[in-house]
Amino acid sequence: MRLAQASGGRVALVIGNATYPDDNQPLPQPLKDARAVAEELRRAGFDVTTGEDLTKQRLRSVIDTFKAKIKPGSAALLFFSGYGIQTGKQSYIVPVDAQIWTEGEVRRDGISIESVLAAMNSAGASVKIVIVDAARRNPFERRFRGFSAGLAALNAPAGTLAMYSAAADKVANESEGENSLFVGELLKEMRSPGLSAEQIFNNTRMGVSRASKNEQVPWVSSSLIEDFSFSRGGGTVPSVTPPPPPPPPPVEPKVSVVTPPPPPPPEPKVVAPPPPPEPPVTVVTPPPPPPPPEPKVTTVTPPPPPVTGPRRDQVIRDLDAQIDKNPRDGEAYYKRGQAWAERREYAMAAEDFGQAIRINPSDAEAFNNRCFTRAVMNELDAALSDCDEALRLKPQYPDALDSRGLVHLRLGRLDKAIADYDQALRMNPRMASALFGRGKAKVRKGETSAGNADIRSAKAIDPTIDQEFESYGVR
């Protein structure tokens, strides 16, 4: 491959989104990661446009600014760290003001990575580079699917080099340190002289894989048709003057060998005559006693153990293996709890959410999910305690308000149920479960007209919501 000269220059867009109102606290590393990557790219000669904690409007604005800088033949690079979601086999960057409650709202509020890549390509960039650190468990997906599905593989045009922080459809656990594990390895490789961009990405993948013991394996894809280097040196290998040949070995002095005289002949050996042979002795060995008969062994095959407990399908077995490999993987316990809840194995789900809480006592989502499963199992006091803790950790958490509303409804505390549902609906007016629960509470209070209106609205959003509540014990 020939070396890409990037005749149209080098431009980059570097974004770090950390402060999402729907999350209980800012992400610790995206801003630091984005700043470190931007500085490294400036040293490599890139014209860098940066953005931090971008809303949807500001995100579109900086993308337009970035696109305007791309000239035919240039190298263009996108770096994003924050939350990302895949839907419809495309991955989306999530702005900090996104209001995502359904899968369709991902496309409305998110920015498709492929659309940014297409803009880079249409502007004439000959080299297109995409680096995305967004394969995180996020607060949005739990509203419309079982668990985070990571990012989708990128459908990239020719001349593209792309890397995600984790394999397609996988989620990476958060790491400690100034930078994320992924960005830390990337920066280290970018500072190594004489490497092409493709070598840097492959070395980063191997470094992250080794450091995480293969728990996190970045995804790399290349359709480059020319070699490219972040260094202005272009990955060339400096010439080295070969060392002079070693001097010839010294000539060893000739040694004269003197042959010693032959030894004198040996004296003749005198051999004494042999003694007369002794008379033969016959030894009679008595026959061995016959072996005792072997006892007859009767083999009894025990009956197979009875099949008990919930059925462990492939999803559950995969999570079992992940937990066996790392018993401190709170994310795996959380995912298995969600999988059990989807199969209506609520006791198993509550146990796994409890394990996730023991590993991370600040996991508001795990407290909320255990609240819900305990509410369905009629463990209402314990459920209420879990929901209260979820809301202490994350006060503006509509899912936990919805769960606590269900607990109050089942306890007969109708005013408290309505208050929780009201607050959840102020944050998400289309939350079908909150509408239906509030409708049921109003009907039980005698506010039949208003209650039935809420129930009709809930069924318009989710026609099966009444069956769902029946499974929770609410009729």
Automatic annotation (TrEMBL):
Keyword Repeat: yes
GO biological process: proteolysis
Key words of the record: Repeat, TPR repeat
Stretches forming TPR repeats: 330-363, 398-431
Caspase family p20 domain residues: 10-88
Region annotation Disordered: where it falls in the sequence: 230-312
UniProt biased composition (Pro residues): 240-252, 259-308
Pfam families xrefs: Peptidase_C14 (PF00656), TPR_16 (PF13432), TPR_2 (PF07719)
GO molecular function terms listed in the Swiss-Prot or TrEMBL record: cysteine-type endopeptidase activity
SUPFAM superfamilies per UniProt: Caspase-like (SSF52129), TPR-like (SSF48452)
PROSITE patterns in UniProt: CASPASE_P20, TPR, TPR_REGION
PANTHER family: MUCOSA ASSOCIATED LYMPHOID TISSUE LYMPHOMA TRANSLOCATION PROTEIN 1/PARACASPASE, MUCOSA-ASSOCIATED LYMPHOID TISSUE LYMPHOMA TRANSLOCATION PROTEIN 1
Stated name of the protein: Caspase family p20 domain-containing protein
Organism expressing this protein natively: Rhodoplanes elegans
